[in-house]
Amino acid sequence: MAPGVMCRLDLPGNPSQPFHYRINLNYARAGAWGDILLLGVHLAFACSRPDLDGPSANWQLATCAGVAASILWRLLLPAHHARWREALTLVLRLTGLGLGLGVHHVWQVVHSEALPGMPSAADGGLNGEPAAALGDAAAQMARLLFVSCAGSLVVLALTLRMRLTLSAVAQAGLVASLLPHTRAGCAGPLMSHPAIQRATHRIYGMLSWVGTPLPLPLAPMVAPTPVEECAVIVTFFQVGLGLLLPLLWEAVVAARAFAAHQRQRRAAGLPAERGLQAWLYTQVWELCSNTEGGLTVPPALLAWILLAVAWDWTAFLTASSH
């Protein structure tokens, strides 16, 4: 697709305004459904888990109050909300998983009861029979995805939108709040079950192929224990799927919008916008688009390279940090 076609975006505001202001207006206009979705998810979670402890219940209450405040703010003072929404959005994103409370609760659920459709350690389906190996691996893959909270990370990134630099800080902070719980969770009773560890080992072997594009991979240099294999996979899901891929998507979308913004400024006789974020957006756009002189790299290939690096370094650092 020609870059001119990809750049035809309906950015609100006018070209004389800074890009971050215009893109924030766009996020404010499109973010109403995201707030409603988040409020519904948190209310459903709170209602389905009446056994939440005090801190977790307070986190759910505070999050619901924050999202409800954003909805009311948008309805009553739309212009003011559009201008200043990033501050509240940043707080909601950073605390979206309770600063670790959410993942702690998820690990408790996994170790205390079987998830629907997933065999527990006491289930006869977890055994060493070859016929059950594929099913055990699939169930364990779903279980590890669940405890990684990668799905929640993606939802938060796509619903609570903000400028790329703030989004990167918020998403990295979210992932950092999850990491301290990983090794202890992987050493818990369910993940220590021999059949679970065999399934985890199979998944580790399959995911090792993600690092194929790297010329000098580091992952083969370590020999992780069963607990470390689990920790590597969970951390990879958090970093690769929950951090890098959403940020790549945001970067490509924002770079496309920034290219449209710059074209509109040129058409209006205004100088090109400059600065760190302007440089970053320009580099991303030249890398991924068909602009003359740019290196055309499909976003899918960039995603694979990012995932390969994430797997390689996650495996190396997690298995090396005893």
From TrEMBL:
Keywords per UniProt: Membrane, Transmembrane, Transmembrane helix
Membrane-traversing stretches: 27-45, 57-76, 88-107, 141-160, 230-249
Protein name: Uncharacterized protein
